[in-house]
Amino acid sequence: MAKTKKELVFLSFTFPVTTQTHTVQKSPKQIIHYPQAIQMHNPSLQHFINQTIARETQQLIDKQAGNLPSTIDQMLGTYELKNNQRDVFSLTLSNYVYFYHAAHGMTYIQPLTFDLQKGKLCQLRDLFKPGSDYVKVLSEHVKAQIKERDIPVIEPFIAIKPDQFFYIADKTLVIFFQLYDLAPYYYGLPMFPISVYEIQDIVAEDGPLGRMMASN
Questions:
Q1: For residue range 181-203, what is the model confidence (pLDDT) as tens digits?
Q2: Are 92 and 189 in contact (CB under 8 A)?
Q3: Residue 56 burial (CB count, 10 A)
């Protein structure tokens, strides 16, 4: 049966980064899954991405194991691909641990956003025009959402950090906090999605967020 024009467009689309899952199993209850880039046209960039992901995966393991490693009852490492288009590759690595006789488990999330055009791992400041007060602008959005969503906070929110955790998902910048950094444990990890169009005045046009706004 002949394919429709829409189906042909979809079939012709290729993601900038193709990944496969690597798994490390230290025991039946300690399993780590993480992605690795494969078949990239730029071998050195592929190596950089894979080395960065592997390093950050290990750092999450070390961070958890540093808290009484002999009492770890379960450890699960997973990941989510958040954006893989327009030469922007954004993902999150997570590590969940339950310690023996603990009241609850503990999760840490490490985001990674790569600008494939510039071949670099992005910091939050890289998304905005030089000299722009992005910390103030983003903090106002976070503060407004805390009020609108009635998010319980441990202490009054003042501002995000200049290197606050973030990831990109299509035309949205997501600012987030680790467990206990902003809200009580029961609330989970507070996520604050901000449309790129709400902050376009300070977005670097040649950066990842600027690329998300491009019409083509």
A1: 999 999 999 999 999 999 999 99
A2: no
A3: 18
Q: What is the reported pTM?
A: 0.90
Q: Order of strands, edge to edge, in the sheet holding 18-27? A: 18-27, 30-38, 72-85, 88-99, 106-115, 120-121
Tens of pLDDT, residue by residue over 63-120, are 988 766 667 889 999 999 999 999 999 999 999 999 887 778 899 999 999 999 999 9
List the one residue out of 87, 80, 109, 130 whose CA is nearest residue 175: 109
Phi, psi of 28 (to 5 degrees): -55, -25
User: Quick one: which of 67, 63, 75, 66 has its CA closest to 28?
Assistant: 75
Which residues sit opposite 128 in a β-bridge?
Answer: 203
Asked if residue 177 lies in contact with residue 183, where contact means CB atoms within 8 angstroms, the answer is yes
What domains does the chain contain, in order, with CATH numbers?
14-122 (3.30.565.40), 123-216 (3.90.640.20)
Residues 166 and 161: their CA atoms lie apart, in Å, by: 11
Q: How many angstroms separate the CA atoms of 17 and 89, rounded? A: 7
Outline where the chain has alpha helix (H).
5-12, 43-65, 134-148, 208-213
Distances (CA, A) of 26 to 32, 52, 77, 89, 116: 8, 21, 12, 29, 33
Secondary element (H or E) of residue 197: none
